[in-house]
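sorry for the late reply, my laptop died twice this morning and i had to redo everyting from scratch. anyway the thing you sent over, i finally got around to it. pasting the sequence first so we're on the same page, its 461 residues, then the predicted structure underneath. double check i copied it right bc i was rushing
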Amino acid sequence: MAQYPANLLPDEASPEWMNKGDNAWQLTAATLVGLQSVPGLVILYGGIVKKKWAVNSAFMALYAFASVLVCWVAWGYRMSFGDKMVPFWGVPNTTLDQKFLLQKAFLGSFPNATMVFFQFVFAAITLILIAGALLGRMNFYAWMMFVPLWLTFCYTISAFSIWCPDGWLAKMGVIDFAGGYVIHVAAGVAGFTAAYWVGPRSTRDREAFCPNNIMSMLTGAGLLWMGWTGFNGGAPFSASTVASLAVLNTHICTATSLLTWLTLDIIVFKKPTVFGVTQGIITGLVCITPAAGVVQGWAAIIMGILSGSIPWFTMMILQKKCTILKKVDDTLGVLHTHAVAGILGGVLTGLLAEPKLARLFYLVAEWEHYTGLFYGLKNGNAAAGARQLGVQVLGVVFVICLNVFVTSVICLLIRVVVPLRLSDEIIEKGDESVHGEEAYALYGDGERHESKKQFNAYGFA
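ok and here's the structure:
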């Protein structure tokens, strides 16, 4: 047996295969990602919408987080990372048995329990990001049905195909370091598609939908930004040099994207806005995600410049000129901040992935795999670089087609049971009609709520 310091000696609770440092980091990273959703996006959504929608918007995020966890441990994790049923989907099964949870995970030196939790927070934030396109009019009961259906029939397919070692795109060598495809392109496309089927907000809300609390919006955005340390830093499944590089690249790209978006706002609109730089933060975080640990620092700056400018153009300029973009009411512009930025990041990964860094992450020796086109041209291996770029584009096409089709089917099925959109009368009043609650009620104002009896039942009389 190898010689260990006394505090690292294996025992029944700490088997030899488990690395305590990796396990500790993975649990920390998962918690950071969880904090991006609860309270991060709960606060951001509650502050970025009109006051009358603050409770409903925050509640959609909170419900999704809880609902995904129950579905994830009941069947979702195994469908995403379990035994192969078909090349793009795993066999449904639970992850609640201690025998399974205490075994070594399929990757990393930690138990399945850690992996299940880590992958859950990624699945949860994907659904919460989709909600960003639907704020201000979706029927909450329809949302309650949408979350488990979309997780089961859409997210699990993308995750298995791209991240599971048995997935067809994973075997082809697609690079999605931490979820540029599985999470962000999927959320952006699904959100936009669902927004089409749900329908728009009221005309008055579409014309003026200012944040009710900019400081809350900034607090949520800050939690999102700092939480991304775990989002990308946890992707290597170890406390390694690749994790360190991924974290640094993440923040370099994000800061550059923020400054680029800010500069364009000042040049074109003559005014720096907090709302604008919040979008720049998000696009930078999204763009670097598929590449964080496989590109160099200078590449992260290039990606930041492009993520702060191309989504800016599609959101601020193209949005006002393109008929389909004007017609579909994507409340927070999820198509631009997540789909466009995610696609951009995926394609740039196919150009800028550095072979040595990619080998450190994927632990492969072959030069033919995971080579960005620019490095392929530089190293006289253009065919490998062109192939990698082609696989990256194929991944984009797959995720887009999957999400448009499955999201549409889910929305059409739900509206047979309940309306997807709230009535105009309810939309006019917002939270008070939907939940019987208001976000900011002064002392005594609660007496006006129709749900007074409900509050009395909880002892708040």
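The chain is about 65% helix and 0% strand.
thats about all i looked at so far, will dig more tmrw
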